[in-house]
Write a structure and sequence with these properties.
The protein has helices at 3-10, 13-23, 34-48. The protein contains three helices and no strands. The termini are far apart.
Length: 62
């Protein structure tokens, strides 16, 4: 099973896709591995208190 398939089965697909996008950038230099990327991203989210607000009409599907 690939890392992408494992992440999808555990519900972490968004993290894997963000990491793949980061790794695929054309910037020169060494890239973080998946584990380190997730740790740094988690720390960033914790310190910046980012949330997503979804607004919808009650009774309607999003």
């Amino acid at each position: 099973m690939t890392r992408l398939q494992e992440a999808h089965s555990r519900g972490k697909l968004a993290a894997v896709l963000a990491w793949r996008r980061y790794v695929d950038t054309k910037d020169a230099g060494k890239k973080y591995g998946y584990s380190q990327f997730c740790a740094l991203f988690t720390d960033y989210l914790r310190t910046h208190d980012l949330v997503a607000v979804l607004r919808h009409e009650p009774g309607r599907a999003i």
